[in-house]
């Protein structure tokens, strides 16, 4: 089993969360390090810009689910996944896969929370 950190359309209440229906929800959290989130309908997190902690959710996924998410994200050709430290709401730190985009695209989401983009 692996942990995956989702910050966009895979989060609860959004359209791609169905891919995680058989996965265990671990909790809400944020990245330990700062990155930059951009959005243009969907979000893009850029590793080499330090703007804010990225807000999201952690799931425990099996290999089949990780492969489905890789297909959705176009890994490794579109987004690239990398393990990063995540701080859960309870303060626990874990390592989880996060999908990075190679360059800024769209509008900067200064808060690092995709909900601020699509609800705002």
TrEMBL record:
Gene3D superfamilies: Gamma-glutamyl cyclotransferase-like (3.10.490.10). SUPFAM superfamilies: Gamma-glutamyl cyclotransferase-like. GO terms for cellular component: cytosol. It comes from the Archaea. Residues 4-115 form the Gamma-glutamylcyclotransferase AIG2-like domain. Belongs to the gamma-glutamylcyclotransferase family. This is AIG2 family protein.
């Amino acid at each position: 089993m692996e942990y995956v950190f989702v910050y966009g359309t895979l989060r609860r209440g959004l359209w791609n969360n169905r891919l995680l229906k058989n996965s265990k929800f671990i909790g809400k959290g944020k990245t330990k390090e700062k990155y930059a989130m951009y959005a243009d309908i969907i979000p893009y997190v850029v590793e080499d810009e330090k703007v804010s902690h990225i807000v999201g959710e952690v799931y425990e996924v099996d290999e089949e689910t990780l492969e489905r998410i890789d297909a959705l994200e176009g890994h490794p050709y579109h987004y690239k996944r990398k393990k990063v430290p995540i701080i859960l709401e309870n303060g626990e730190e874990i390592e989880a896969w996060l999908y990075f985009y190679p360059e800024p695209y769209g509008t900067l989401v200064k808060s690092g929370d995709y909900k601020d983009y699509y609800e705002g």
